[in-house]
Every structure is written in structure tokens, then in C-alpha cells.
Design goal:
binds zinc ion, Nuclear Transport Factor 2, Chain: A, 34% strand, alpha+beta, 24% helix
């Protein structure tokens, strides 16, 4: 049985997000970083989430709280809504996504536009704007 990567990219984990989470490789694009961060959330890899925040907003003190939250959530899937820039030769990028999860027995959707910036050749998460859920994107 083939175990696909949690990020939904139709690749096996070992050939998708794992090399990034293991720091063997670094994402070329903002979307790859976004996908690997989602996968890290599903696997409870809190250090990867923290370390892929841009340094000035790195939530080091939130580590325990984040770990507890991550362990209490069941992630159901990620869909990329759109991307702007964020390619291998860009310095900034935006990825809009929807992630579906179960928290306290309720199915929730996180719909966010995340901003990414490249520092010394590596992509980092800078900020995110939560969007209202709207019907256009309710495809689950
Ligand atoms: Zn992946």
C-alpha cells in the first residue's frame, strides 16, 4: 500500500515533505514550504513549524502550547487555493490555502493567506491573514 504524503501532493512522504522536515533539503518554492509546514502540523513536528517562521516572529516561547494543540488536532486535508510569486527565483510569495481539521469533535476549516519571504536562499513563513469561509471554496 502506498502511503501518500499528508500534504496531498500525490507523492510518497519520503519523496515529498520528509526531506524538508528532516532538513536534508530546503523547499524551492513558498508552496513547498507551506505544504511541508502542513505536513509537520499533521505529524506533530513542532520544531519544524517554529524554525520555518521568520526569525523575528519565531514562537519559541509558545512551543509547549503549540505542541499540545497539534497533538489534539486531527488534520483531514490541505488544498492550495492560489499562489502568487513564491517561485524559486522570487524573494516573496503568498500561498492561499484551506486546511480541514477536527478539534473537540468539530470539523473546522482554516482558510488563510500566508506570506513567505526568502532569507539567505531559504523560504520562511512571515505572516498570515485568516479569511472568512465562503461558498466558492467549500468543496469538501
Ligand atoms: Zn508533502
Amino acid at each position: 500500500m502506498i502511503e501518500y504524503c499528508p500534504c496531498g501532493n500525490n507523492k510518497v512522504y519520503e519523496e515529498c515533505c520528509k526531506p524538508f522536515i528532516d532538513k536534508k533539503e530546503y523547499p524551492d518554492t513558498a508552496e513547498e514550504l507551506m505544504r511541508s509546514r502542513y505536513t509537520a502540523f499533521t505529524l506533530g513536528k513542532v520544531d519544524y513549524i517554529i524554525n520555518t517562521h521568520i526569525e523575528k516572529i519565531r514562537p519559541v516561547k509558545e512551543r509547549k502550547k503549540m505542541q499540545r494543540w497539534m497533538n489534539s488536532i486531527e488534520w483531514l486535508g490541505l488544498s492550495i487555493v492560489k499562489t502568487e510569486a513564491g517561485q524559486a527565483n522570487d524573494e516573496i510569495g503568498m500561498v492561499e490555502f484551506r486546511a480541514i481539521y477536527i478539534e473537540d469533535g468539530y470539523t473546522e476549516a482554516l482558510h488563510e493567506q500566508s506570506n513567505f519571504e526568502k532569507i539567505d536562499g531559504k523560504w520562511y513563513y512571515v505572516s498570515g491573514t485568516h479569511l472568512q469561509n465562503d461558498k466558492v471554496y467549500l468543496k469538501y
